[in-house]
Amino acid sequence: MKITTIIAFTLVMIGSLVWLLVGLFDFNLVAFIFGAGGMAVVSRIIYSLVGISALWLIFYFITYRPLRSID
């Protein structure tokens, strides 16, 4: 489960950097790399993996509460 969380965290960080580029510079790195035409399926897969990773991290933080204080 630890490796799943590390992969999910990495994907969410990459996704957040892509959204930073979109927000600041109106530049979509994923569309630039994989294109907007026939390779759009790859872009959708990448966006889906980032979204699933975010859901996994939400589940992880609710279930395991890694940031709870130690009493």
Can you walk through the features of this model?
This protein is mainly alpha-helical. Helix 1 crosses helix 3 (40-64). 77% of the residues lie in helices and 0% in strands. It starts with a helix and ends in a 7-residue tail after the last helix. The chain is elongated and about 50 Å long. The model has no long low-confidence stretch (mean pLDDT 88). The chain has three helices and no strands.
Concise structural overview:
By secondary structure, the chain is mostly helical. The chain is 77% helix and 0% strand.
Radius of gyration, CA atoms, in whole angstroms: 15 Å
Mean pLDDT: 88
Tell me the distance between the termini: 25 Å
Report on the biggest sheet: none
Beta-strand portion reads under 5%
What is the helical fraction, as a range of percent? over 70%
Quaternary structure of the protein: single chain
| H/E topology pattern | HHH
Structural class: mainly alpha
Low-confidence stretches: none
Report the strand count: 0
Give a topology summary.
Blueprint: H1 2-25, H2 29-34, H3 40-64
Helix pairs in contact: 1-3
Sum up the structure in keywords.
71 residues, mainly alpha, single chain, 77% helix, elongated
